[in-house]
Amino acid sequence: VQLVESGGGLVQAGGSLRLSCTASGMIFRINTMGWSRQAPGKQRELVASITSSGTTTTYVDSVKGRFTISRDNAKNTVYLQMNSLKPEDTAVYYCYADVPLRTWGQGTQVTVSS
Q1: Using CA atoms in the order 28, 54, 97, 5, what is the torsion angle rounded to 10 degrees?
Q2: What share of residues in the chain are helix, strand, coil (percent, to 5)?
Q3: CA distance 114 to 109
Q4: Residue among 97, 90, 89 nearest 50 (CA)
Q5: Residue 26: its pLDDT value, please?
Q6: CA-to-CA distance for 96 and 9, rounded, in angstroms?
Q7: What is the 3-state secondary structure of 55-87?
Q8: Percent of the chain predicted with pLDDT > 70
Q9: Residue range 93-108: average pLDDT?
Q10: Strands 108-113 and 9-12: what pairing?
């Protein structure tokens, strides 16, 4: 199973980006999907997750009200809509999927300028 992220880039503070992550390969079932991020010199932190049905989502406190996670099971894809971006959101963002073992994407850079 492979996960490929897209949608990262450079944006000014207050702007928006939408990240996508698509799983491919020998997939029987995808359980929880989510996003984590790692800023330079910091530990990786879980940003958001969503259950297989999409009915339950979780967010780290710092992104609540600004980020929205969603998924399209027909496309094996998870999204992260990021609004009102702040410089402290700058990081490499990694998606993951529990298939059933947790599998990670290669990461996509998000840079928010002040």
Answers
A1: 110
A2: 10, 55, 40
A3: 16
A4: 97
A5: 87
A6: 19
A7: CCEEECHHHCCCEEEEEEHHHCEEEEEECCCCH
A8: 100
A9: 95
A10: parallel
Q: How many other CB atoms are found less than 10 A from the CB of residue 4?
A: 14
Question: Residue 55: which region, alpha, beta or left (left: phi > 0; alpha: psi -120 to 50)?
Answer: alpha
Q: Which residues of 12-28 are buried (b: 16+ CB within 10 A; e: fewer)?
A: eeeeebebbbbbeeeee
Q: How is residue 94 written in tokens?
A: 């990694």
Residue 37 in contact with residue 48, Cβ under 8 Å?
no
Question: Any idea what DSSP says for residue 12?
Answer: E
Tokens coding 15: 């702007």
